[in-house]
Write a structure and sequence with these properties.
four-stranded antiparallel sheet; Methylamine Dehydrogenase, Chain H; 18 strands; 3 domains; 32% strand; 303 residues
């Protein structure tokens, strides 16, 4: 049904009012939707922020931090009874900790470069550290004092170990050697020199009668503790890089030159040449007119 006024103005005004009301309703609905979305987002942000604050706080309350260093950790070890921890750092220090309280017992500062490896003696009374300063140091765990400073290596000491009875020490270095030491006197027992590259890891057998060293170029060697002799070594192929040294390479190069280059060498003299075929006990001369004129020692030789 259509309604009309005499001048048509009333109908037009009513239509405009109806459109305005509909637009207002849509605007209010959109505003409520935006407001609810913002409220939900703010609520999620608040919950996440509270979680981020409470979680570290709960960890701090329940578990002690090992505070006392400001550098990367290179090596860690437990004492045999599990009551102490030992850590080595890139800031040239090693720290002995109480495992229960997380408190520092001793901070060991004798090294002049980063500490690469740490170890406890089986009875927990001694500590051993190896460092980039080419030394290994034996420490007293009770006092934190140096017992022996081992200086035999000429490059970084990367790995250290105690024998099962605690009477011997084993150190591996980037000078391609491993050294077996007497823990009491600090003297060298054996210097193990069979490796051709960095010794990265060392270990004692459970009975202490054998040693194991691992090196670059895929090489591991088992040694006799008493004699220092090699018992076994990982097999190496003929073409393995560790199979060759500088002298082997030079000999091989000369051999290749002899087989490849010499058989095809040409000796030139005014357009004439000697062509030496494959090596044999005969010297073959091919079509060289007047060769007797330039072979030294021939009756027709001319300078």
């Amino acid at each position: 049904m259509k309604w009309f006024s005499a001048d048509g103005i009333a109908i037009e005004t009513f239509s405009k009012c109806l459109k305005a009301v509909q637009w207002r309703k849509r605007s209010v609905s959109l505003f409520k939707t935006i407001r609810m979305s913002i409220s939900r987002l703010l609520l999620r942000i608040i919950i996440f922020s509270v979680f981020c604050v409470l979680l570290p706080l709960s960890l701090w309350v329940t578990k002690p931090f090992l505070t006392g260093h400001y550098s990367d950790i290179n090596s860690v070890a437990f004492s045999a009874d599990g009551r102490k921890l030992f850590t080595g750092y890139r800031d040239d220090t090693a720290i002995l900790w109480d495992a229960e309280s997380g408190q520092v017992i001793h901070k060991l500062r004798e090294h002049t470069s980063e500490v690469n490896s740490v170890a406890f003696s089986p009875d927990g009374r001694k500590l051993l550290t190896g460092s980039w300063d080419d030394t290994a140091i034996l420490w007293d765990a009770e006092s934190g004092q140096v017992i022996h400073k081992h200086r035999e290596h000429t490059d970084s000491v990367i790995s250290v170990a105690f024998s099962p009875d605690g009477r011997k020490l084993l150190t591996g270095s980037w000078d391609d050697t491993a050294i077996l030491w007497d823990a009491e006197s600090g003297q060298v027992i054996h210097k193990l020199r069979e490796h051709t590259s960095n010794v990265n890891s060392v270990a004692f057998s459970p009975d202490g009668r054998k040693l194991l060293t691992g090196s670059s170029y895929e090489t591991a060697i088992i040694w006799n503790t008493e004699t220092g002799q090699r018992i076994w070594q990982t097999p190496r192929t003929f073409w393995h890089v560790s199979t060759w040294n500088i002298y082997d390479i030079l000999v091989w190069f000369l051999f290749v030159c002899l087989l490849v280059f010499f058989p095809f060498t040409r000796i030139f003299d005014k357009g004439r040449y000697l062509y030496l075929r494959k090596p044999n006990k005969y010297l073959r001369i091919y079509d060289l007119p007047g060769i007797e004129n330039w072979i030294y020692g021939h009756p027709s030789y001319r300078r």
